[in-house]
Amino acid sequence: MATVDLVQDFSCSVEQLYDYLTVHENLSIIFAPAKVTRIKEGSDMPNGLGSVRKLSLPLVPSFEETVTLNQPNERVEYRISGGFTPLKNHIGVMRFSSTPQGSRLHYTINFDGKLPLIAPVVGFGLTQGIRRGLKTLSKTLV
Description:
- By secondary structure, this protein is of the alpha+beta class.
- The protein has two helices and seven strands.
C-alpha cells in the first residue's frame, strides 16, 4: 500500500478552506495539470455526499471519484469509482482543523497498485504534485 500524507496550513478560516476545497472544479489547482469537473451532484449539497467528479489528465484516460463521507468543516472522504486507473483500494481523506493563524488541511490518500511497483511511483508523483498545489493554494486563499 502507498500513502500520500500531507499537512498544509492556511491563513483563512476552516469554513473558507472547506468551502473552497469541496467545489470539485477548484481541485484543479491541487491536481494540476488535471482538470476536475463535477459530473453528478451530491445528496446533501452539489459537491457533497455521493457527488462524482471526473479527473482528466493529458495523454491519460480520465477517471472518476465519488465522495463517500462529507462532514462539513471537518472531513471529506472519497474513492475512485470509475474510469481507467492503475490503482485499487483507493481512499482519499481531507481533514480540516483550526489553528491560531487560520486553518490546517491534513490530506491523506491510501491505495494499492494493480501491478507491482505502480503504487510507489504514483505515490511519489502524487505527493510532489499535491504538495506543490497546496503551497500554491495557501498563497492565494486568504
